[in-house]
Specification:
228 residues; alpha/beta; Rossmann fold; six-stranded mixed beta sheet; four-stranded antiparallel beta sheet; 7 helices; 10 strands; globular; binds adenosine-5'-triphosphate; ATP-binding
Length: 228
């Protein structure tokens, strides 16, 4: 499903963020990416949705070799991959409904189908009654739910989340994790970078630990393994 072969990434400033990474993730898996700050977790994640390109090595997602897709085809790849960020990245002047619909509108869906899909997905994240609100009128947890709704509205096969609970309090974080588990239970692959020891050690999943740009541990039902 997701195959990384011998991946190296050196940024323009000469920093090598990934130093020979090999990974194979099956459809439907839930994988935590852990490791110290600066280890290469975000870089690893950005390569998967082609926010960054590897310096060397190949990444295959489904039937697609990312090194072979042209820039204009990247939006099609993004249809198969939903992305959730620590800081939500919602459009502040758009309502909850519009923030989610926007993800569909860019790929030219009909208005009727947009409405149906947006309302369905807002129901999944428990925010149907907030469709008309602006992001600024919502709590942090609610804003993150909107960003999850936006990530899943196209029914992607993969949802990638970079520290999705990083800005949320513990109670809210557990609610967000429950939503991710529900999405995963429907067959969606979840890949989540996190610094939360509590979450990783409580909701047991596959753990891939990255340190200094290499994978140092890859365990099913693994532990967080760091003190903070
Ligand atoms: N756009 C960039 N240009 C240059 N160097 C970068 C860039 N992005 C990341 N780096 C560097 O690459 C290394 C890995 O960074 P990355 O963001 O992947 O780490 P991380 O494990 O996600 O860290 P954190 O847990 O702090 O978010 C770091 O040394 C970082 O400074």
């Amino acid at each position: 499903m997701i195959l990384m072969k011998d991946i190296y990434k050196t940024y323009g400033n000469g920093v090598t963020a990934l130093n020979g990474v090999n990974v194979d993730i099956e459809q439907g898996e839930f994988v935590y990416i852990v490791g110290p700050s600066g280890a290469g977790k975000s870089t690893f994640i950005k390569l998967m949705y082609r926010e960054e390109k590897p310096t060397k090595g190949s990444i295959i997602i489904g039937d697609t070799d990312l090194s072979e897709i042209k820039e204009r085809k990247v939006p099609y790849l993004r249809r198969d991959i939903g992305v959730v960020f620590q800081d939500f990245k919602l459009l502040p002047k758009m309502s909850v409904y519009e923030n989610v619909a926007f993800a569909l509108e860019v790929i030219e869906e009909s208005p009727k189908s947009i409405r149906k899909q947006v309302m369905e997905v807002l129901e999944v994240v428990g925010l149907k009654n907030k469709a008309r609100s602006l992001p600024s009128e919502l709590s942090g947890g609610e804003q993150q739910r909107v960003s999850i709704a936006r990530a899943i509205v196209n029914h992607p096969k993969i949802v990638i989340a970079d520290e999705p609970t990083g800005n949320l309090d513990p109670d809210t974080s557990w609610g967000i994790m429950k939503t991710f588990e529900e999405i995963n239970a429907r067959g969606t692959t979840i890949i989540m970078a996190t610094h939360s020891k509590e979450i990783v050690n409580t909701i047991k999943k596959r753990v891939i630990a990255i340190e200094g740009g290499i994978i140092v541990r890859d365990e099913q039902r693994g532990e967080y393994g760091y003190e903070i």
